[in-house]
Amino acid sequence: MSAATQGTRRHLFSIAIILISIMLLGGCDDQPVRSNSVKTLTQSQQFVFEPVVKGEPIIFPQDYGEHPQYLAEWWYLTANLKTEAGKEISVQWTLFRMATSDDELTGWKTPQMYMAHAVITTKKKIWKAERFARGGIGQAGVSLKPFRAWLDNWSWRAPTSNPFPGELEFSDDDMLARLNIKQDGTIILQGDEGYSQKHPLLGIASYYYSAPFLNIDGVIELDGEQYKVDGRGWFDREWSSSMLSAKQQGWDWFSIHLEDGSALMVSQLREKGQTPYFIGSRSWPDGTMVTLDNNQIRMKPMHFREVSGISFPLSWLIEIPSQGLKLQTSVVRRDQWLHFLFPYWEGPINVTGSQKGKGFMELTGYEEQ
């Protein structure tokens, strides 16, 4: 093994140890057993980060960029695509930033760490990869003028400070994607003008906005075979210093494009022994949006299936009477357990019922229950 290879592996191992340390910051008496994938999003008991304040405006283009004064944030893209022959291919690409302390150091001493996930899914197979990097040395980050979000050679670039239109490119082993991303609608500020409450009583919240109306086309290569693809995408941005209370176990999140052209986001945050807390919205490309509060959303798991020894609710009934919606979801592929450093289930879904649709589902906090 070369010295360079040994050095790279030592560097990645060091970052992994640091990230694991982040996940342990939420220690508190009388907590339930919680998964590694959500511990990092619990309020730090050791460091002081900026709070999420109701009424603080989201401002563009600056809020396309980084917020290092907060504990964690992500740039999250999903897409349901088709080839010219009609084969369905789904894509998830996420860049995470996490702070290991509240120090304002730079260069190699920066507390800002980055993690990126790339996942491509067909009905029969999943391709996935995970990478880590340190901020402050040019290996990863998000910059404006023009927009660029990157980790190593995985990169989302745009000619202006706005990520749309832009181009996402990533490759790893037997997968490659070069995708053009165009916005066909407005930015949606989730919750109360971007203030997204996560708990009914405590001041747990994030800043959260979405771009649910994206047109995506480009090229995907899987196991040496190349496909031209196009379809619809969804972009989510969140940042916070405390996205879960110490007793919340995780969330079940859905992003759905409905056949009438609207977009639906619903999520429940689970707490053992308590009724889940619901958040959501329904939006349209012209900017019309209906915020769905905790009393308007009903979510019920219909079927649990075992994946990698863990029981997941892979089929759901989602009802929103005020919107006339009664939807049933089903997964495209059952085994979408992403055994990354922060493990979670994530994958494309089909929707039937009062309307048809396609989207993505994310399930966190199940691995250690």
Tell me about this structure.
The chain is mainly β and 369 residues long. It has one domain: AttH-like domain (AttH-like fold, Beta Barrel). 7% of the residues lie in helices and 51% in strands.
The biggest beta sheet reads:
13 strands, antiparallel
Query: Based on CA inertia axes, which overall geometry fits?
Result: globular
Assign the CATH topology. Answer: AttH-like fold
The first-level CATH class is given as Mainly Beta
- The helix count comes to 2
Beta-strand proportion: over 45%
Radius of gyration: 20 Å
Number of structural units classed as domains: 1
What order do the helices and strands follow? Answer: HHEEEEEEEEEEEEEEEEEEEEEEE
How much helical structure, as a percent, in the residues? under 10%
CATH superfamily: AttH-like domain
Give the low-pLDDT segments. Answer: 1-45
Average pLDDT rating:
88
Distance between the termini: 40 Å
**CATH architecture call:** Beta Barrel
The number of distinct β-strands equals: 23
Structural class, from helix and strand content?
mainly beta
Pfam families: CrtC, Lipocalin_9
Protein name: Hydroxyneurosporene synthase (CrtC)
Domain AttH: 73-241
